[in-house]
Design a protein that fits this description.
Order of helices and strands of chain A: HHEHHEHEHHHHHEHEHEHEEHHEH
CATH architecture of chain A: 3-Layer(aba) Sandwich
Largest sheet of chain A: 5 strands, parallel
CATH topology of chain A: Rossmann fold
CATH class of chain A: Alpha Beta
Strand content of chain B: under 5%
Largest sheet of chain B: none
Order of helices and strands of chain B: HHHHHHHHHHHHHHHHHHHH
Mean pLDDT of chain A: 92
Number of strands of chain B: 0
Low-confidence stretches of chain B: none
Number of domains of chain A: 1
Helix content of chain A: 40-55%
Low-confidence stretches of chain A: 363-369
Radius of gyration of chain B: 25 Å
Largest interface: A-B, 20 and 17 residues
Helix content of chain B: over 70%
CATH superfamily of chain A: SGNH hydrolase
Number of strands of chain A: 9
Oligomer: heterodimer
Structural class of chain A: alpha/beta
Radius of gyration of chain A: 22 Å
Chain lengths: ~375, ~525
Amino acid sequence: MREKKTKARWKGILAFTGIFLVLFLVVSDIMSVSDCTSLANIRGFYMEPKNSLDVAMIGPSEFYADYSATQAWQEYGYTSYSLAVAGVPGNLYKSMLKEVQKRQSPKLVVFEVNGFLQGDDYFAREGQLHTWLDNIPWSENKIETIKEMIPENEQYSYFCKIAAAHNNWKDIGQVANCTAIKARMDLNGYSYTKGFGTYTKSCDNVRNSKEKKIQFTEKSQAYLSDLLQYCKDSGVEHVLFVRFPHGRKIKNPEVLNQVADMVTSYGYDFLNLNDDLDELGIDPDTDFYNVEHLNVKGMEKLTTYFGDYLCQNYDIKSDHSAKEVAYWNKCAERTASMMTECQDDLAQGKVRRYFELSVYLSRTKSAKK
Amino acid sequence: MELISVQFALFVAIALIVYYLFPKKKQWIVLLAASYIYYLLICNKYIIYMMVTTVSTYLGARAIDALRIKQSEVVKAHKQEWSREERKSYKNKNLSKRRWIMIGVLLLNFGILGFLKYFHFTAEIVVNFLGLFGFHGTAPDLGLLLPLGISFYTFQTMGYIIDVYQEKVEAEHNIAKFALFVSFFPQIIQGPIAMYDDLAHQLYEEHDFEYDRLKSGALLVLWGMFKKMVIADRAVKMIQLVTADTTAFSGTFILMAALMYALQLYADFSGGIDIVRGIGEMFGITMAENFRRPYFSKSLTEYWHRWHITLGNWVRNYVFYPLSISKKFLDMGKWMKPRFGKHISKVVPTSLASLLTFLIIGIWHGANSKYVAFGLWNGVVIMLIELFRPVNDRIGDALHINREGKFYQFIAMVWTFILVLIGYYFDIAESFSSAIDMLYRSVFDLHLSDLHAFDVLAPSGLDHWDYLVILAGAIVILIVSIIQERSGRKIRDMLMEKKLRVQWACIFVGIFAVIIFGFYGPGMDPAEFVYMQF
């Protein structure tokens, strides 16, 4: 009798612990809130079929706003993905590359250098560190990144994300948004836009915007050098470091030369598109949504230019299976229809955000019609 | 290793596993080892003070006991040959020796506590006093650090030596067992202050693993964490902001801060005690209750029977009663009776003893004039209430006030709370004069329209959601307290009677309420338990 009772209790304890753990993980995931576009970009990356990407784009929001992987597919036939996290500091690039390498063998890796040019405080941006580390799966790389990048007394909040995320109940709207994105993407099983996000508006003060001073500090140099060395050591053959176009002119453009020198000293390439707006055909009055990012019109122009540049300078095209082609065509079509809505809104002056989730919402709209 | 931390939770879990796997007769050794490891981890070399207290009290108690035994043996042996006077004289000498041993132990240990805790305070008073006579100087800074929990374990241990002296308990023969009584790790930091005959035997007893007891203890820990993490740690931010510069805030906000402090202090201290008692329960040890819904008190005396009960009991047993029945106080009563009447002669000596008791409570809280004022306020108010009780009774009778009526009881409760709240001003103020200023402004600078300027509280880091959580938490505490007060039962016991799925649902709600609404994590900087500093 007593034995039976003890057995039942142990079962009860195990069941309780199990339910608690499941609830804890679910609540932790729900409460963990990130910038929606970055979240969709990271989540979508892990949904890409293994070894299917020709080009991996790693960097900040410039990559998801100024470049469309699906447009590049339609125009040039190579597959790419913008693993872009808003405001991501350069010290995370190595960790991002490692994640890419776990799933893909791209012929070319492209980095946006913005993450190295914003001063030392930029490397400790808690929000961005959480956006990346909270949304990637557990692995040796994740643990190493936490240990390397996060002060010891704060590491617990990265190992147990509810410690930092529990207070997000105050922003219940964002919690709901992120949960919707996660659920919808998980249901779909893959990303349509391949890392894209924009706002349908035109910035009217690009020409009058203040010049910006960029900083390539000792810390930045150390992080960039570390990344370059890692690329060398891990045998990444083709790496392009790029500075995408910005509305604000750089006050000290010579800093970019320093970056270029360091990059080329490791045998990799550097491309500065910061001020070449005329050559790119970008109109500062209509093609930016703010001084840092192109809008959908500017993005189309830059994707065409940049895609062409990549095809001209790198052997990135490969033969994709019929299944892959069909998959990419489907994604490109769905994204293109979202882009059309995007263009319409821009023309009509309706300011909206468009990103991965917009594709699903767009389909709902058409289904209702 | 904070009381609320993953490290401490792991420490307790390991201690529990080892405790219940150990041979039952030796379980107390696990507790002793855990207690010393814990204290070493949090206090490092300052453990020496606790060891001095342990050894000196142990030896003192053993010496007292030995003298007592010797006395009964000698008296027995000389029963026939000694006259009554000789016997009395021997007993007095023996008693005197025992008293001196007790005094020696008390002086040594209260001396350590006093020196570490009150040296700076006293030195500053002396320097200020000398300054009046033209001798200017500065108080020496010896860089003294107060070992955690010193007030608690000193009071507990000194209670024991007095009990041994008064022959209420026998001295413990095993120094290791006695060391456990002094150092029992859940309670060492913030009490409750246990009586030897309540706690010791439980520590040394054999304990079987009991699932229901473990669950009940865990529920009490959860409730304590709710009070501490959800309410107290959040509320303290607003209090810190207002009290850091009271001149920047109107009386409305000062009053709000005082009210918030009443909630925060209760949630913090009782929450901490719930955690401690819950852990104790998991080990099969029932520790004394320290709070019994104090804000439901209908008089200040009742409040002190419901608030920090174990400290109240200690000072009552070892200060108030000995003083009230001391020869001098009895003589004072006798002297007053023909001069001032029966009531005054009865009340004044008792009130003076009570005043001294509260003075000790005040000083126990800290080396600061504001704590002295806090103690005096409580003592004086209780004294005045007792002195004017006949007048009060007469007025009540004349107005035909029904003292048993709900309305009267409610008013008495509110009035008592106001008196308690006034005492709290001395607690939160920087100094005595600041407390008086805050009190004045809370009454004469009170404007409801100030509530529109709620933004002045923004630097505290709290937003309207936080205040909503505090309010919701306070309502939960209130409801639980009302249920307990009316039924006289523990909510835990009531919950245990429900179906398993109801129990689990409630427990999960509790756990996730703490996880989600708790004030913790990076940048949140949760406050230490208020009573840890004592």
